[in-house]
Design a protein that fits this description.
Blueprint: E1 10-11, E2 15-21, E3 27-38, E4 41-45, E5 56-61, E6 69-79, E7 86-91, H1 95-112
Antiparallel strand pairs: 1-3, 2-3, 2-5, 3-4, 4-7, 5-6, 6-7
């Protein structure tokens, strides 16, 4: 399968809230964490419920309560590992906002991290 990503992904854990409607129209809200973020999407860990592939969802990054970032996305893939369920999302709007306030900031955080030292034996 060809690689479809349009930019680097940063492995970073940010708190999020995901909202969607289930097959009966009931609104579901789940809290989780990003596994990684890219310029056009994210891989999200959700501990309980997962939306279905193709679902439209509202994603809010809640890292900064004073300046939460809210975008719309579509579910493109699920990882149904019972110990660590994940949902892959592709953004459908507010992509510039996401790039500026989430993706670019994640890159700056990663770049500023000091490499882990080696244990002395």
């Amino acid at each position: 399968m060809p690689e479809r990503r349009r930019g680097s992904r940063y492995v970073i854990s940010l708190p999020i809230r995901l909202k969607w409607k289930d097959e009966n129209g009931k609104e579901i809200t789940e809290e989780g964490l990003t596994e990684n973020v890219g310029p056009n999407g994210a891989l999200i860990y959700l501990p309980r419920l997962l939306p279905t592939v193709g679902s439209k969802v509202n994603l809010t990054v809640t890292e900064n309560p004073e300046d939460e970032v809210q975008v719309s996305a579509q579910v493109i893939r699920l990882e149904r590992n019972a110990a660590h369920p994940q949902v892959a999302l592709q953004l459908t709007d507010s992509i510039r906002l996401w790039k500026k306030k989430v993706w670019e900031v994640a890159g700056e955080i990663i770049a500023a991290e000091k490499p882990e030292g080696f244990d002395e034996w």
